[in-house]
């Protein structure tokens, strides 16, 4: 802890990535990366504020946290900054009512959001939900708006699963951008706003975070 | 015919668009634009070579021609330059074996093309065929190639049908371009190669065409 103490002088909070840092996702819930369960426990014991920051948008936070807890991590849902809650905050601040093109798993994250008479479109990695019909509906909603607003939860090109590479949300974001002549606002890493919202939730300034 | 004669001095062939020029497409086969049936007949009687040039890629040429003939047009399948046959010629010239992501209606246009062990991807307006699964398969084929080649039949943003606006192939082309880091080759208008192939089929130089 002495070495940590020196490195963390002036630091009040720590942001941690999840996938590829705490654990590798995969079939059966994935597996922890060596030493990470203990590292999280030690950070928390040290009195530092800890927040987990992920671009995961195919799983709800509760499912993700459930999987991590079953792997031994000391983690709670309220400690996770993920694109859906950050998007909800942005929607609320700007009075936006989204048409949602998201995975069924994360739809519940938007339960508190008014989705009547949409004045924007939110897309996330919808997987099989990226049907022509669903894409066309999102396109039609955008084309029907005087000022089309497209919010994308991440802009990944693809990701890897055990069976191979999978198209991520980024391509579908580009498709709607091109068809509608708009530029998407990206919520999630590497957007500075995303990190700022994580810091805000932690109650720590950027200069006090690691 | 005198006025035409003056305007067409030195001209040996005429390229005609189809949709929006000869007829308006729509439910029940569409309807001819006033005067167009007679205009085509007169052009043909004049001894000029006539060729029809369309970006239609949801219907086979035989179906399109059948619809036009039933509207009274003097038109034959061999007189139509459409993206699928132009793509077939390009594939043949370059020894490309496509993975096809196209509408079922136009699949027959590729009957003579070797699609085994694909070394490129051809996409066209596949409509409902643009499922996540089909897009992901096209993506995986491209990512598996040392030199990914993506050929897109048109690059339209959207088109209009009686029920509203519909996403065209262009957005899906952009999605694959972004995900794979490639630039698509577009077959169809406004590509110069497309017009050149129409002229070649008509046996007329560009300076002799109208």
Automatic annotation (TrEMBL), chains A, B:
Q: Which UniProt keywords apply?
A: Cytoplasm, Hydrolase, Magnesium, Metal-binding, Nucleus
Query: Which terms in the Gene Ontology molecular function aspect does this entry carry?
Result: inorganic diphosphate phosphatase activity; metal ion binding; phosphatase activity
Q: Where in the cell is it found?
A: Cytoplasm; Nucleus
Q: Which cofactor does it need?
A: Mg(2+)
Nucleus as a keyword of this entry, yes or no, is yes
**Which family does the record assign?**
Belongs to the HAD-like hydrolase superfamily.
Write down what this protein is called: Phospholysine phosphohistidine inorganic pyrophosphate phosphatase
Q: What organism does the record attribute this protein to? A: Molossus molossus (Pallas' mastiff bat)
């Amino acid at each position: 802890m002495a070495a940590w103490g020196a490195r963390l002088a002036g630091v009040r909070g720590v942001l941690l990535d999840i996938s590829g840092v705490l654990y590798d996702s995969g079939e059966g819930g994935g597996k922890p990366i060596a030493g990470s369960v203990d590292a999280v426990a030690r950070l928390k014991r040290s009195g530092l504020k800890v927040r987990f920051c992920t671009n995961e948008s195919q799983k709800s936070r509760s499912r993700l946290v459930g999987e991590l807890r079953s792997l031994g991590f000391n983690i709670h849902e309220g400690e996770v900054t993920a694109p859906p809650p950050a998007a909800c905050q942005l929607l609320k601040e700007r009075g936006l009512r989204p048409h949602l093109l998201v995975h069924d798993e994360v739809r519940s994250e938007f339960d508190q959001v008014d989705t009547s008479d949409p004045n924007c479109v939110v897309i996330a990695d919808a997987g099989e939900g990226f049907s022509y019909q669903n894409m066309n509906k999102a396109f039609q909603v955008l084309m029907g708006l005087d000022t089309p607003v497209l919010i994308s939860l991440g802009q990944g090109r693809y990701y890897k699963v055990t069976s191979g590479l999978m198209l991520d949300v980024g391509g579908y974001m580009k498709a709607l951008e091109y068809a509608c002549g708009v530029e998407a606002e990206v919520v999630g890493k590497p957007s500075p706003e995303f990190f700022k919202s994580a810091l805000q939730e932690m109650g720590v300034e950027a200069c006090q975070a690691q």
